[in-house]
Design brief:
The chain has 316 residues and is of the alpha+beta class. 24% of the residues lie in helices and 15% in strands. It has ten helices and nine strands. Strands 3-4-7-6-5 form a five-stranded mixed beta sheet. A two-stranded antiparallel sheet has the order 1-2. A two-stranded antiparallel sheet has the order 8-9. The radius of gyration is 20 Å and the shape is globular. It starts with 13 loop residues before the first strand and ends with a helix.
Length: 316
């Protein structure tokens, strides 16, 4: 999830870019993924320590949403540079001896969640993995484990008490000026697998509400669709909300029919309200498809007409 205010965004801005097409002899699979596209903040003239010119090679300085040429190191919002090795930094990939988790880390996270639930801690998986459950094709970073604010300290203490399984870890160096850098982060021992303990109030998730959690085929707990939509609306998280609407092909009428509150009170420092935001995003599903998807075949960039519910057909 990403904060709404532009001043909270890091200089390395992550756009959702339709760029991959996989061909086989019998089937064409087109899908989208979230790529890390560096977008420069106002840059400082000169050379970096490695002699690289501190500017984009093609002269296109910080154009969101286009595949750039070779850029210099991205910057945080305060103008300082990312580490030179930010893509293979220890906080991104773990230790040199770490292995990649099997089954995309699902089994390890299930073990963690079962442990927390056995201790009476209600939790669910948020962010990109939850979007994937509902049919998005984003690429994940850390796993987000959401708990009631009052349970965060207890969960942290329980996890710290298992040093054979989990160790505290520094924030991902790419997100140091984002909200998530303040949350407690752990790494699974021996694996390049990270997770965050996310306070529900900070991401507007009504986790204590009855029926707020559903289970996927794997047993992973996710926010129910109405609760997920409500949280993204309340947080004015446009990027994730667009993805969720497109992945589930939600209509403008769906919100009212499923108990989502569409407030007409404007967001702070904005002329937009949750109601107007919802109306705009649900009315522009085909516009977001661009020219890549034939509207006679696709209802959204993720869904063909009459396609099945991704919760039933997906891997989660």
């Amino acid at each position: 999830m990403k904060p709404r205010d532009s001043e909270k965004l890091p200089s390395l801005y992550y756009r959702h870019s339709p760029v991959l097409s996989i061909l086989s002899s019998n089937l064409e699979l087109n899908f989208e993924t979230s790529l890390y596209i560096p977008v420069m903040a106002p840059h400082q003239e000169g050379l970096l320590s490695d002699g690289t010119p501190d500017q984009p090679v093609d002269g296109a300085k910080g154009v969101p949403g286009r595949l750039p040429g070779i850029y210099s190191r991205p910057q945080y919002s305060d103008g300082t540079f990312f580490p030179e090795n930010f893509l293979d930094h220890e906080t991104v990939i773990g230790y040199p001896t770490d292995k990649q988790p099997g089954n995309s880390g699902i089994d390890n996270i299930l073990e963690l969640i079962s442990f927390l639930e056995h201790e009476g801690l209600r939790c669910c998986v948020l962010d990109v993995i939850a979007l994937q459950y509902y049919g998005s094709r984003r690429m994940e970073n850390d796993w987000w484990i959401c708990l009631s604010d009052a349970l965060i300290s207890q969960a942290e203490a329980l996890i710290r008490a298992r040093p054979d399984k989990y160790i505290p870890f520094a924030p991902d160096c790419r997100f140091l000026d984002l909200q998530q850098s303040r949350w407690t982060r752990f790494k699974c021992v021996g694996l390049g697998l990270f997770f965050l303990l996310v306070p529900a109030r900070e991401v507007c998730v009504a986790i204590e509400k009855e029926g707020s959690i559903v289970r996927g085929k794997t047993g992973l707990p996710f926010p129910s669709l109405p609760v997920f939509v409500q949280s993204l609306l309340d947080a004015d998280n446009i990027g994730d909300l667009e993805d969720l609407i497109d992945a589930m092909n939600l209509s403008e009428e769906w919100a009212t029919a499923n108990g989502v509150q569409l407030s007409e009170t404007r967001y702070a420092d904005s002329q937009v309200s949750p109601r107007s935001q919802w109306e705009r995003l649900t009315r522009t599903k085909q516009k977001r498809m661009g020219l890549k998807y034939n509207p006679k075949i696709y209802a959204t960039k993720y869904r063909k007409h009459k396609s099945h519910d991704p919760r039933l057909t997906g891997p989660l």
